[in-house]
Here is the input.
Amino acid sequence: MYAATSRSETPPELQRLKGAARVGFTGPDSRLSELYQANPCRVLLPRIPGGRVEAVLLNTAGGITDGDRLDYATSASDGAQITATTQAAEKVYRSRGEDSQVRSHLKISNGALLEWLPQETILFNGAALARQTYIEIDAGSRLLAMDSLLLGRLASGEQLDDAAVHDSWRLRLDGQLIWADDFRLAGDIESLRQRRSLLDGARALATLIYVAPDAGGHLETARSLLKNCHGRAGVSERPGLLICRFLAPDGLILRRDVEAFLPPFRAVIHGESRTLPRVWAC
Here is the structure.
């Protein structure tokens, strides 16, 4: 006996990725306090000159699609000073309907410092992405965090005529929500991004925040540095929080603007120069 419907007419449900990685550091010597990895997520801990600690998160699958889910968590406590990044740009491929999900949970407490500096996320045509960044921090700690998004591959002539992205941030200071931010585009993104009220033609965008008791004191520094951007950029202030926005016509200009801003800004807020994560140059 044969089935009335062929396999080609009812494609089998595919197994999806559900990866996770957690890494935590504590104490003035930034010693490792937690490490958990679930395929395809991994954490690398390269040796950095000067004794600084850097955590590099990676997705060994090479990208996500169709309901895949990646969960990352990074924590710093009791005076630890950490820089966390990703090994490469995250690629979000065409989906048959379900959102690909990337969740990042950052927790900073008891006078610690965390720099969350992942590389870009690239949206392919047909992709559907839901990305969330959850932050918990106390009043005595500091955070420098960013994310960036590229809407298609300009070098390949790709246009996003059918894609979806929902990017959200939630920031809690001492348990209280002090900042919530949502960015959402769906459908013909190529047309939507041309609207002046949305992206005004930009194809690449980034958000960078600095959370610290002295954040407001660095407003003019940030504003002065952003004047040198080749794309468009601006900064706003809330109590204990600076918010920088970057827009650019392509990913290369966005990367150059971010790389031009970060070293001098980090030198001011840390009181010493600090190099960008080495994987950014790979």
Remarks:
- The CA atoms of residues 108 and 137 lie 5 Å apart.
- The longest strand covers residues 176-187.
- Residues 18-281 form one domain.
- Helices lie at 189-192, 219-226, 251-270.
